[in-house]
Design goal:
Elements lengths: L1 E7 L5 H11 L4 E6 L4 E7 L3 E16 L2 E17 L2 E2 L3 H9 L6
Antiparallel strand pairs: 1-3, 2-3, 4-5, 5-6
């Protein structure tokens, strides 16, 4: 199963980049390129991501209209998230999805 990642890379020739990408990982797909921000969006195999993170969160009480309700918050603390030595820009989103969380911006 693939996951969308974003890496910073200058791409002058899209076809050459796609060929280079196939040499790095055969299953990777170049999805989009933001020329202004120099950000490439790739669809890659989840197993090819070198990630180091841990889940964080907790449960706490809040008072709402005279009642006590419990709120649970979960997330990830990302220490490192790379794909073939490229830093992943959307690391928090990627690691959240790898952990099985729904990422909300």
């Amino acid at each position: 199963m693939q996951i969308a990642i974003k890496i910073s890379k200058q791409v002058d020739d899209w076809d050459a980049f796609v060929d280079e990408l196939e040499g790095i990982e055969r299953t990777a797909v170049a999805d989009d390129y933001d020329e202004e921000g120099k950000v490439v969006t790739l669809l890659v195999d989840r197993k090819s991501i070198d990630d180091y993170y841990h889940p964080v969160g907790g449960r706490y009480a809040i008072e709402y209209e005279g009642r006590t309700e419990w709120v649970e918050e979960v997330g990830v603390c990302v220490h490192s998230c790379k794909w073939h030595d490229h830093d992943i820009i959307n690391a928090e989103q990627v690691c959240s999805e790898l952990e099985g969380f729904t990422y909300v911006e």
